[in-house]
Protein backbone atom coordinates (compact mmCIF):
# COMPACT_ATOMS: atom_id res chain seq x y z
CA UNK A 1 0.00 0.00 0.00
CA UNK A 2 1.73 3.14 -1.19
CA UNK A 3 0.52 6.03 0.95
CA UNK A 4 2.84 8.98 1.45
CA UNK A 5 2.85 11.43 4.34
CA UNK A 6 1.70 14.29 2.12
CA UNK A 7 -1.46 12.43 1.16
CA UNK A 8 -2.27 11.80 4.82
CA UNK A 9 -1.53 15.40 5.81
CA UNK A 10 -3.70 16.74 3.01
CA UNK A 11 -6.54 14.44 4.08
CA UNK A 12 -6.24 15.58 7.70
CA UNK A 13 -6.47 19.17 6.43
CA UNK A 14 -9.74 18.40 4.64
CA UNK A 15 -8.61 17.58 1.10
CA UNK A 16 -11.35 15.27 -0.20
CA UNK A 17 -9.35 14.28 -3.29
CA UNK A 18 -6.50 13.10 -1.06
CA UNK A 19 -8.93 11.03 1.00
CA UNK A 20 -10.38 9.58 -2.20
CA UNK A 21 -6.85 8.52 -3.14
CA UNK A 22 -6.36 6.82 0.22
CA UNK A 23 -9.75 5.16 -0.21
CA UNK A 24 -8.83 3.90 -3.69
CA UNK A 25 -5.52 2.49 -2.47
CA UNK A 26 -6.75 0.86 0.76
CA UNK A 27 -10.36 -0.10 0.06
CA UNK A 28 -9.61 -3.62 -1.20
CA UNK A 29 -7.73 -4.51 1.99
CA UNK A 30 -10.38 -2.99 4.25
CA UNK A 31 -13.26 -4.66 2.41
CA UNK A 32 -11.61 -8.09 2.55
CA UNK A 33 -11.26 -7.72 6.32
CA UNK A 34 -14.91 -6.71 6.63
CA UNK A 35 -16.00 -9.72 4.57
CA UNK A 36 -14.10 -12.08 6.87
CA UNK A 37 -15.81 -10.71 9.98
CA UNK A 38 -19.34 -10.50 8.60
CA UNK A 39 -22.14 -13.01 8.08
CA UNK A 40 -23.19 -11.62 4.70
CA UNK A 41 -22.54 -8.90 2.12
CA UNK A 42 -24.96 -6.43 3.72
CA UNK A 43 -23.18 -6.69 7.05
CA UNK A 44 -19.78 -6.47 5.33
CA UNK A 45 -20.86 -3.25 3.64
CA UNK A 46 -21.94 -1.80 6.99
CA UNK A 47 -18.60 -2.76 8.56
CA UNK A 48 -16.77 -1.28 5.57
CA UNK A 49 -18.62 2.02 5.83
CA UNK A 50 -18.02 2.27 9.57
CA UNK A 51 -14.36 1.34 9.09
CA UNK A 52 -13.84 4.22 6.69
CA UNK A 53 -15.59 6.65 8.99
CA UNK A 54 -13.20 5.56 11.76
CA UNK A 55 -10.16 5.67 9.47
CA UNK A 56 -11.03 9.25 8.52
CA UNK A 57 -11.64 10.29 12.14
CA UNK A 58 -8.50 8.57 13.45
CA UNK A 59 -6.14 9.60 10.66
CA UNK A 60 -4.74 12.42 12.77
CA UNK A 61 -3.54 9.75 15.26
CA UNK A 62 -1.60 7.82 12.61
CA UNK A 63 2.08 7.34 13.49
CA UNK A 64 4.03 7.95 10.28
CA UNK A 65 6.70 5.46 11.36
CA UNK A 66 4.12 2.67 11.40
CA UNK A 67 3.08 0.78 8.27
CA UNK A 68 -0.07 2.40 6.89
CA UNK A 69 -1.30 -0.99 5.70
CA UNK A 70 -1.01 -2.41 9.23
CA UNK A 71 -2.64 0.66 10.75
CA UNK A 72 -5.61 0.56 8.37
CA UNK A 73 -5.97 -3.20 8.87
CA UNK A 74 -5.96 -2.86 12.66
CA UNK A 75 -8.51 -0.06 12.49
CA UNK A 76 -10.81 -2.15 10.28
CA UNK A 77 -10.49 -5.22 12.53
CA UNK A 78 -11.20 -3.15 15.64
CA UNK A 79 -14.24 -1.58 13.99
CA UNK A 80 -15.61 -4.98 12.98
CA UNK A 81 -15.07 -6.42 16.45
CA UNK A 82 -16.72 -3.39 18.06
CA UNK A 83 -19.77 -3.70 15.79
CA UNK A 84 -20.03 -7.45 16.38
CA UNK A 85 -19.85 -6.94 20.14
CA UNK A 86 -22.36 -4.09 19.98
CA UNK A 87 -24.76 -6.19 17.90
CA UNK A 88 -24.42 -9.20 20.19
CA UNK A 89 -25.08 -7.02 23.22
CA UNK A 90 -28.16 -5.50 21.55
CA UNK A 91 -29.49 -8.95 20.63
CA UNK A 92 -28.88 -10.20 24.16
CA UNK A 93 -30.73 -7.24 25.61
CA UNK A 94 -33.71 -7.45 23.23
CA UNK A 95 -33.94 -11.25 23.56
CA UNK A 96 -34.21 -10.93 27.33
CA UNK A 97 -37.17 -8.56 26.94
CA UNK A 98 -39.19 -11.07 24.97
Describe how the helices and strands are arranged.
Blueprint: H1 5-12, H2 16-37, H3 41-58, H4 68-97
Helix pairs in contact: 1-2, 2-3, 2-4, 3-4
Give the key terms.
98 residues, 4 helices, 0% strand
How much is the average pLDDT? 89
Low-confidence stretches: none
Strand content: under 5%
Cα radius of gyration in angstroms: 15 Å
Helix content: over 70%
Got a strand count? 0
Sum up the overall morphology in one term: elongated
CA-to-CA gap between the ends? 48 Å
Query: Which class best fits the helix and strand makeup?
Result: mainly alpha
Number of H- or I-type helical stretches: 4
Task: Write down the secondary-structure element order.
Answer: HHHH
| Largest beta-sheet details | none
Description:
This protein is mainly alpha-helical and 98 residues long. It has helices spanning 5-12, 16-37, 41-58, 68-97.
Short description:
This protein has helices at about 5-10, 15-35, 40-60, 70-95.
Amino acid sequence: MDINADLITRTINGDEIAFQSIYNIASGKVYSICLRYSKDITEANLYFEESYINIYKNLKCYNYQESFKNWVSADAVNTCLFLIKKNNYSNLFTDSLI
